[in-house]
Design a protein that fits this description.
9% helix, mainly beta, 4 strands, 4-stranded antiparallel β-sheet
Amino acid sequence: MKISARNVLKGTVVSIDKGATTAHVKIEISPGQIVTASITNELVDSLKLVTGGPAYAVIKSSDVMVAVD
């Protein structure tokens, strides 16, 4: 795989929660560290994502936001 994004995190799909049109896919990138992505149900099927299967979290952003309480 070649991709222009700098942040590519390999992990394991721990859950897929499909809604009407969008799914929330949780990928564990290290023990206890979860990244959640919102993608279409169509892409979940196209990528053949399954719980327990391998996946990459690819993060591409020109802005990073920081917040505190």
